[in-house]
Design a protein that fits this description.
CATH class of the domain at 12-121: Alpha Beta
Largest sheet: 7 strands, mixed
Distance between the termini: 7 Å
Structural class: alpha+beta
Strand content: 25-35%
Radius of gyration: 15 Å
CATH topology of the domain at 12-121: Aminopeptidase
Length: about 170
């Protein structure tokens, strides 16, 4: 897949402090929590997370919006290593009404384009639960490829193995 520089993001925008309450609500959903591994936090914990995130040069967080600009999820490049030009992608569509409609795939493609053409990363990778077929299909559609299977060993949330996927700027 060949990506070109983007001039306008249709699906993502910068995450704002006002988005946190909605995201915290989604994280209380057991199904979302199982898929993302994120735990719901109290307001003071969310404030601490926000402050740490804003100071952390190794992460960039974005809101995912629907066609009317309503918040439906979030996506991030995390664990950014500027020296090796790589980052880990994480995404969650918290509003289940938007699952399976292509919003996540669009958001992933926009964040990948930002990563490669604005941030000048060379590699973006992600980990996804092996049984999350919908997400794997979306990542493949966005241009990621499977590179390894990570066996659940107790440190991973639950007992489901993970699939390591990646995409490089060179293809």
């Amino acid at each position: 897949m060949v990506l070109s520089p983007i001039t306008h993001c249709r699906r993502i925008r910068r995450l704002t402090y006002n988005d946190l309450e909605v995201i915290a609500g989604w994280d209380k959903d057991p199904e979302i929590n199982r898929l993302t591994g994120r735990m719901a936090h109290e307001k003071d914990e969310m404030n601490e997370w926000w402050n740490n995130m804003m100071r952390d040069p190794s992460r960039m967080n974005f809101a995912i919006t629907d066609n009317d600009g309503n918040l439906i999820g979030d996506v991030a490049l995390e664990q950014i290593i500027w020296r090796t030009r790589e980052a880990e992608l994480r995404i969650s569509i918290g509003n289940k009404a938007y699952w399976g409609l292509g919003y996540g795939t669009e958001a992933v493609m926009e964040v990948v384009a930002l990563g490669f053409f604005v941030m000048h990363l060379d590699r973006i990778y992600l980990r996804v639960q092996e049984d999350n077929v919908r997400a794997i299909r979306s990542y493949l559609k966005a241009g990621f490829r499977k590179v390894a299977r990570l066996v659940a060993n107790g440190r991973l949330h639950g007992t489901v193995d993970l699939v390591l996927m990646e995409m490089s700027r060179e293809g």
